[in-house]
Amino acid sequence: MYGMERRFSPLWVLVLSALFFAGCAQHANVGATASASASSGGSTAASEWSTYGKTYDNQRYDPSSQITSKNITSLVPAWVFQTGVIGSFETSPLVVDGTMYITTGSNDTVIALDAATGAIKWRYIPKLGFATFCCGPVNRGVAYDKGSIFFATLDGRLIALDAVTGRERWIVTVGNPQQGFSETMAPLVADDLVYIGSSGGEYGIRGSFTAYHETDGKMAWRWWVTSPGWEGKYASTANGLSLHRDIAAEKRDTPKYRNAWQHGGGPIWQTPAFDPQRDVIYVATGNPSPQLIGPQRPGDNLYTDSIVALDAKSGTMKWYYQETPHDLWDYDAVSPTFLFNTTDGQGHTVPAVAQAGKTGWIYVLNRETGQPIRVSESVVPQKDMFATPGPNGAMMEPGALGGVNWSPASYNPTTHMAYVAAIVQPRFDKPLPYATWQPGGERWAGSRQVVRPHVPQSGVVAAVDVDTGKIAWKYDTSYPLMGGTMTAGDLVFTGEGNGMFDAFDAKGGTLLWQYQTGAGIGAPPIAYEINGREYIAVASGGNFLMNTPTGDAVFVFALPAPSTPGPHTMATLPPPITSAQGGGAPVPVSTAEVSVAQPIASGAPAPSGAPGSMKFNAADKSVTFVVDMGAPGEGSGLNFNGKFKGHLTMTVPLNWKVTMTAVNQDSLPHSLEIISAQQTPPMQGIQPPIFAGATTAD
Questions:
Q1: Cα(337)–Cα(410) distance, rounded to whole angstroms?
Q2: 188, 213, 223: which is closest to 311 by C-alpha?
């Protein structure tokens, strides 16, 4: 059942949980039996998704024509896979040669799946050491090249695996976690080099971007974000707005803080775009350190908060464009750069690089010179931009999360629009007493930004015409958005914090389709094709920063396929493994651990190896199983057929009947519910009881 895929079509996904899910079809209490009937649900894509942004230009655009605005309402789940690691889930899957590669958050596990069925091939669990990270334990994915998988870990390492077996090929240390360094980004691979950035701007690292030889992991070059002379030209404005800087005081204090660059921050959070024709990588750099305070780092703090063009072979900087000089607001460049051609002010077509900022603007630059072509209208409200909070603090909008956070934008070359998922979240900025930098991974900041409970917050999906900078359309959401967009054909896909997975008309912004995944979506979707069938995939597991409902599932959608009678197979997640000395070990798994060739007679025992209390009856079109809500020992807590504590997603045929018997071995009462995955889960927290004694305070 865990990571199970049964070959029925069409399908309906049933979500069972003790946490965060509502809109129930039926509820069950101690000793009761509940039933629910299955009913409808849908997705698409083309070819492979072999690098973070699908192609080196990071457009996250799929040219498929199978799933369109005309048939999107028929999109249904093809399969669902649960990782077993519940929490922030930001992975952007890769699909190469029929295999999907995903990563989990808290333990940096890499899992290889059959991209057509969801059957697990192998998983690798690294042995993590000391780790420091600002924004939750996350991992945004892997890179692939020439039969190898490359990924980074929270404790600052870069690891290469065999793509077929999951065996280690090499491991290198990129940075020191004791100094606040970590890794969360998906690497980039191009021309036999593996590129990786850095996280830890909140802890006083010296940001870097490094290239390693993919064959043996030896370093080819490293570019440092901060260096002597980082004071720059002492810019007084950003995009025409005053930065309210005391330039005279900064110049006076510069000699005193001449070495501030050594812990000057400038992380590189996200996978950059690469232009093979020019052999240039375009990175986006993060906030200076100390964060949210300026007197101890006078000057512009180059090259933080910038778009930077680097020679891919040597790491030599070609040009830079700084979005926010001397940043006091955490308005860093976090979302990945992306490439396209646009028209300049004279009507000429020019190569461009763009980046969606926390400020709410999309910065469009000439790819060859770094000169700005245009800055778009803001996709979020702006108030008191670049104001300096006094000793009593002040409200800031956008807040430190943006705008557009790490969420990747997408670009559709047919519409000439960039699509972003953004955060509308004013924050109160309260200064803190300054403390000098200390090793050991202590956060280094001069103020604390908090969300005021009475201040509304929300999200927005926006389409921006890159040739004019004008907003073409916007769609408001109840939750702030963190995860990103993907555009396929004439559609745009994104996920919401309430679990909704959305599809919009790319030109007009009409919401055409939604699907409830049961947990917050804080990851970018992808699209791919296998055997002529297109798929859309997205991770659903919540987000640490947004405090959205958690989960552990990858949902994959497609248009309904013709029914094909025959044996039904189940693939189950292997048991946890102990990491090897070098860092981890893969676990190969049969793609059909349990095969049910014949229907199981009503009341007959389940086949050998199947969960003990589960029965399928093809004649009656029914599934029955037992949920133990108080089992002792290892199976304690919510227990589905002896395993899968906490929640379960099962995939069943349309119009089948699902019967659940709830058994309680605990002295306390418990409750459980069956819900349709299309329904909206409630906000987190204790839900009201359905009847007396149905719920407890825990």
A1: 10
A2: 223
3-state percent helix, strand, coil for the chain, nearest multiple of 5: 5, 35, 60
Structure tokens, 61? 């655009």
653: tokens are 């045929």
Q: How far apart are CA 638 and CA 20, in angstroms?
A: 14
The token pair at 242 is: 């005053």
- pLDDT of 627 above 80: no
Order of strands across the sheet with 76-82? 76-82, 553-558, 533-540, 526-530
**Rounded to two decimals, what is the model's pTM?**
0.78
516, two tokens? 């409830």
3-state secondary structure 428-450: EEEECCCCCCCCCCCCCECEEEE
533 vs 46, 119, 264, CA distance in Å? Answer: 8, 17, 49
Report residue 10: phi and psi, to 5°: -75, 175
Q: How far is CA 112 from CA 87, 97, 144, 161, 163, in A?
A: 19, 12, 12, 11, 8
φ, ψ at 256 (rounded to 5°): -65, -35
| Cis preceding-peptide flag for 398 (omega within 30 of 0) | yes
Give the CA dihedral 284, 288, 291, 293, nearest 10 degrees: -130
Q: State pLDDT tens for residues 356-406.
A: 999 999 999 999 999 999 999 999 999 999 988 888 888 999 999 999 999
pLDDT band at 19 (very low <50, low <70, confident <90, very high): very low
Q: Compute and round to an integer the Cα radius of gyration of the chain.
A: 25
Active-site residue list: 330
Q: Tell me the two tokens of residue 496.
A: 């919401």
Contact present, 110 and 101 (Cβ < 8 Å): yes
pLDDT in tens, 293-308: 999 999 999 999 999 9
Report the C-alpha gap between 312 and 190 in whole angstroms: 9
